Description:
Layout: H1 3-19, E1 32-37, E2 40-44, E3 50-53, H2 68-90, E4 97-105, H3 108-111, E5 128-136, H4 142-154, H5 157-164
Antiparallel strand pairs: 1-2, 2-3, 4-5
Helix pairs in contact: 1-2, 2-4
Amino acid sequence: MTTQDIATAVQRAGAVLRRRPDMGMQDDSPATARWQGGARVTASHANGTAVSTDMPDELGGTGHLITPGWLFRAGLASCATTSIAMVAAVEGLTLTTLEVVARSRSDTRGLLGMRDAQGALIPAAPQAMELLVRIAAPGVSTERLRAVVERGCRHSPIPNAVQSALPLQLSIAVEAA
């Protein structure tokens, strides 16, 4: 799709949703993860796309595949990149560079359910996250590009979920062995 195609699609969707806001709420495609043995897991989409993860050998995996944490950061970075590109397209900007790097810093002790020196449970979640965005467009001011990035990230589903710390409902079905 060209930048103009993206802008047209976004504008058309916006027009429909302004007329029919009820059409905006929908169930997202579920991701189904199945344990493959060891520390390996394969997550799949209904369309057949699948990605396998594993843990480093220090944590019982082989270390040959990406980790679930990396997959989370990849989703964060690609979601932000997509949203920024959509905002730029709607604004008629022709980007020559758009790259988003998602970084995080985690304490592995949290994954292992360990406690700190004061006895508090160490969080398994990353302790810090950062999106590093590189963007360029000919003849567009730094201020305008910064605004495009900020608007794109503000309206990007995964970065928004991270920033708002979306509550997670846990439903459990125990089957007979």
